[in-house]
Design goal:
mainly alpha; about 0% strand; about 50% helix; 2 helices
C-alpha cells in the first residue's frame, strides 16, 4: 500500500471538518516547502562578511578609559 493510498484510507474515518483541516495542513506543507526552497536560494546568493575586513580601520584614542572633564564632578 502506497502512502497516498494510506492517506485516502485514513481520510475515510474523518469528519468533514477534520478533512478540511487535513487539506489546509497539506496546503501549508506545500506552501512552506516552496518558501524554504526560495529562502535557500536567497541564502546562497547572500554575501557574508569576512573576519578582519575592518582590521586597522578603527582607531581608539589613548585616553579612552579616562573620565571626561565634564563628568568628573558626578563621580
Amino acid at each position: 500500500m502506497t502512502l497516498q493510498q494510506q492517506v485516502i484510507k485514513e481520510a475515510g474515518f474523518l469528519s468533514e471538518e477534520e478533512l478540511l483541516q487535513v487539506i489546509q495542513f497539506m496546503n501549508f506543507l506545500r506552501y512552506n516547502k516552496s518558501q524554504r526552497v526560495s529562502v535557500m536560494v536567497e541564502q546562497k546568493k547572500k554575501k557574508y562578511r569576512e573576519r578582519g575586513c575592518l582590521s586597522g580601520q578603527v582607531k581608539i584614542s589613548d585616553d579612552f578609559n579616562e573620565t571626561p572633564e565634564c563628568f568628573k564632578e558626578y563621580i
